[in-house]
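> forwarded from #structure-qc
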């Protein structure tokens, strides 16, 4: 499989992850994962970190496309892990959500943790006793409208925290689930014409590299561009 490389030097590798690819194996995963493709192309990654993640600093869901940051050596891995932990790495996603958001921007700050049956994540009230037993932690998401369509809104999302399925569960919580999301969709929710997967793409990442703030962008994939072309524009900002 061809893995598009956005940037690389002796310390980092930045790739544009294709949709449908698991980042690294966990549990009963039998299909070939991203890290396996990458270690074939860059054997030195096996000397960074430990299996199965090696130099993977963060992850994207299987059907989410976009930018992924990978360290090439232990020193860089430790540095980037600390940058993520202290929230100094800024990631921005592009998402098409169901419905027409009334505001132009907003902030979602709600506890996110696994559901009672463990099949997905969900938002819990801060006063809920279940938040303790489900591992719920505070999660913060900023969003901004990019373009409005009939029945849908294209937004930029910036997660301040890195909880599992954070954007997906937060946007469902405010009654605007991501188009194409089979796990968090509402009953009878309609998707745009031609959409075959979740409309979520990690298109921008900004982080400190060798004392300089670097920013990288991965344009929206062609399949998602075509979905937008099929939609009727309601209003643009």
């Amino acid at each position: 499989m061809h893995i598009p490389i956005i940037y690389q030097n002796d310390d980092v590798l930045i790739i544009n992850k294709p949709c449908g690819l698991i980042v690294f194996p966990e549990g009963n995963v039998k299909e070939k994962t991203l890290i396996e493709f990458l270690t074939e192309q860059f054997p030195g990654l096996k000397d960074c970190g430990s299996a199965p993640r090696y130099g993977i600093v963060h992850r994207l869901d299987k059907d989410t496309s976009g930018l992924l940051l990978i360290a090439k050596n232990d020193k860089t891995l430790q540095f980037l892990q600390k940058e993520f932990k202290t929230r100094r790495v800024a990631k921005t996603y592009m998402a098409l959500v169901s419905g027409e958001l009334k505001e132009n921007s907003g902030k979602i700050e709600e506890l996110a943790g696994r559901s009672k049956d463990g099949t997905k994540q969900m938002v819990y009230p801060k006063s809920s006793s279940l938040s303790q037993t489900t591992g719920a932690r505070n999660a913060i998401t900023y969003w901004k409208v990019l373009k409005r369509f009939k029945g849908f809104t294209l937004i930029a999302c910036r997660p301040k925290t890195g909880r599992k399925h954070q954007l997906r569960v937060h946007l469902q919580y405010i009654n605007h689930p991501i188009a194409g999301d089979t796990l968090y969709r509402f009953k009878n929710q309609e998707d745009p014409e031609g959409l075959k997967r979740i409309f979520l793409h990690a298109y921008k990442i900004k982080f400190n590299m060798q004392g300089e703030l670097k920013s990288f962008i991965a344009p929206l994939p062609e399949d998602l561009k075509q979905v937008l072309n099929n939609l009727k524009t309601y209003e643009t900002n």
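QC bot note: Residues 155 and 167 are 11 Å apart (CA to CA). The first helix runs from residue 34 to 41.
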